[in-house]
Amino acid sequence: MAAVFLVTLYEYSPLFYISVVSLCFVVTAAMVLGWFGFDVPVILRSSDETESVLTTPEKQMVQMTNPFALEMCPGSASVTDGVSLRPCCLEPCVLSCFWGCEVQALQGALQAHQHGPRLSTPQYFQQALHPHYHHCQSFHIGSGDRAEHHTHIPADHRITDFGPLPRQHYPLVAVLTLAESEARDSYNIVAAVTVLHVPDDRYSLSARVLFQYLLTAQGNMYELKPLFMSADSVLSEPPDSEQSTQPREAYDGASRGEQSPEEEEVEEDEEEEEEDWSEGGGRGCVVCQNAAVNKVLLPCRHACVCDSCVSRFQHCPICRAFVLEAFTLTDGGGGGTAGH
Predict the structure, then answer these.
(1) Per-residue pLDDT tens digits for 151-190
(2) Taking the mean position of all CA atoms in its chain, how far away is CA 202?
(3) Most buried of 113, 208, 209, 329, CB within 10 angstroms?
(4) Do the beta carbons of residue 310 and residue 328 sit within 8 Å?
């Protein structure tokens, strides 16, 4: 019946043509007004335009100074010959090296830090880990001291490896703590825990840092990770945005196989990009390709847009994750910064 009515209206009434022309005029006028910034009814907007109207809330962030830095010195490293470490701290510190520390003991101590006494001194670490390690060696580090410190297991221990995989002992756990009580009161970060792999007779993978933890005076524990990514990494696979703070049950070195030359080249390129960013050479916004990047999106932590473009997206241009918050990227001075 409705079809017969429309056919009759189309054949005998000019109202049909008038209605079609009027509807086209209204839609065209709404599109033109919306293009020039005038408000139009929601029903005439597309889904993308509706999302762009929603503003991204600004999150207040506070920069925390990390007084600890530790790196492995180039050269041969093994369980029998030892490892050379180079700390660089803003305050006098104590470097405690625990050889053959049990995985469960270390993770239990880190969990206890969040619910019990704070692991803010070398004595607290020794009490928490004793007797679940083979050997402990300590060094006193001066403020700004960049000297190399060699740590090794005494020969009379007769330790050449830490057993088959998966292992229940970390080869080396290096802990940096503040030496002076006044410094512990002035810094929010009170300890840095670095777990290192050291090659032995059973597992000859090169020495490297497995992971690092920062411990705060409030009992928080954060895994130290890079916070910012270069905008040139858009085509690369996005990293896991979840921040792992759960205990690692076993040291399974088999899952960390030898790297191919291609993977090493990629890592070198990423390090160069991070150095360029730290030197102030900020990348351009991936959206407008004009303004400098000055917004960090949360929770994915990608720094890829400017303050003008951040309000136009609900999804990160790099990983397509939902943008819940954002904060302004500013240059910080002095010391390192925590990864969260």
Answers:
(1) 999 999 999 888 888 889 999 999 999 999 888 888 999 9
(2) 32
(3) 113
(4) no
Task: Please give the domain boundaries of the chain with CATH numbers for all domains.
Answer: 2-45 (no CATH), 65-223 (2.60.40), 231-331 (3.30.40.10)
As a whole number, the mean pLDDT across the chain is 76
Map 162-180 to HEC letters. Answer: CCCCCECEEEEEEEEEECC
DSSP string, 51-113: HHHSPPPBPP----EE---EEEPSS--BTTTBEEEEE--SS-EEEEEEEEEEHHHHHHHHHHH
Q: Which pTM value belongs to this model? A: 0.58
Nearest-angstrom CA–CA distance, 142 and 92: 5
Q: How far apart are CA 99 and CA 162, in angstroms?
A: 10
> Measured between alpha carbons, how far is 120 from 215 in angstroms, rounded to an integer?
8
Q: Check if the beta carbon of residue 194 is closer than 8 Å to that of residue 89.
A: no
